[in-house]
Design brief:
Elements lengths: L6 H16 L5 E4 L8 H9 L3 E4 L9 H19 L8
Parallel strand pairs: 1-2
């Protein structure tokens, strides 16, 4: 994703992919109050689909720890999987 305005479209795609692959619904979206998640269109979409929006309080970056740790774990997993492939190191 290059631009923040792409977040809404990407989230809709992600939601459909998750629901198709896992047969589970997304129940909540946790965000740091980034502007890309606060648009009226995005909030209305969340409400229409029964997705709770959970915002971290302003000035409390330490509450992003769960998301940051999850991102780090995913990145470590991808790096581990990539090390077992025959792709060139440039990937």
């Amino acid at each position: 994703m290059r631009y923040k305005f792409e977040a809404f479209g990407r989230f809709k795609e992600y939601r459909l992919e998750v629901e198709n692959q896992t047969s589970c619904k997304i129940k909540a979206l946790q965000s740091d109050r980034g502007g890309e998640y606060l648009s009226g269109e995005f909030i209305d979409y969340l409400k229409e689909n029964g997705i709770l929006s959970q915002w971290t309080p302003p000035g409390m970056p330490q509450l992003n720890g769960v998301a940051e740790r999850r991102n780090r774990t995913l990145l470590d997993m991808v790096r581990s999987m990539m090390s077992f492939t025959e792709l060139p190191p440039s990937f």
